[in-house]
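Researcher: Structure for this, please.
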Amino acid sequence: MSKSACPSPHTPQHGSNGSVLDGQVLVLNQTYEPLNVTTVRRALRLVTKHKAEVLEKNGAIIHSPAITLEAPSVVRMLYRVKRPLPELKLTRRSVFARDGHKCQYCGRSDIPLTIDHVVPRCRKGATSWSNVVASCIRCNNVKGDRLPKEAGMKLRKTPRRPRYTPYISLPTFLSAQRAGRWGEYLDPWMKCDL
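Model: Predicted structure, C-alpha cell format:
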C-alpha cells in the first residue's frame, strides 16, 4: 500500500527547498519533556550516534548508498539533557501566535496586524503579556489612546502570559498543537489553554 493512499497523521514537514531532510522533528528529553524542534538531518545524526531513539516516523523514506531509513517525526534522547528554563520573550511574533493571528477586537485574521497596548503607554500602560494584544490597524486607530471600554470596544479574551513548554518557540509550539502534530507528546506539558 502506498503512503499517499493512507496519509500518516504526522505528514512530513519539508523545508523551503522541499527536502525531506529539512523536515521538522520533535526532540524529547529522556523524561519525555519536549526539548526542541530540529531537522530530520540532525535527528538522524542523533539516532545513528546512539544518542536518541526514534519514537515515531513520518512516513518519508531516506536512501543512502549504505542504508534506507524512514524519516523520524519524534525522537527521544537516551540521556537526560539538563537545561536552565528559558524565559519566554515578549515579541510581536509570540503575541500574534498567542492570539491566533486574529485581531483581539474584531476577530479578523485576513488583514495585517499590529500590536496594541490595552492600557495605552501614555497612561503608564506596560509592555507586558497582560497588556498587549494583536490588533488590526483599523481597530488600533479607532481605539487610539483610550481604554477599550472608553472606545466602546471589547477584547475577545483577556491577555495573559502563555504557559507552555518554553524550550520550543511559542509559534512552533502553537502551530504544532493546532495542527494536531505531536499532540500526544506536547499536550501533557500544557499548563493551560492559550
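Researcher: Any notable elements?
Model: The chain has two domains: 20-84+165-189, 92-143. DSSP finds five helices and six strands in the chain.
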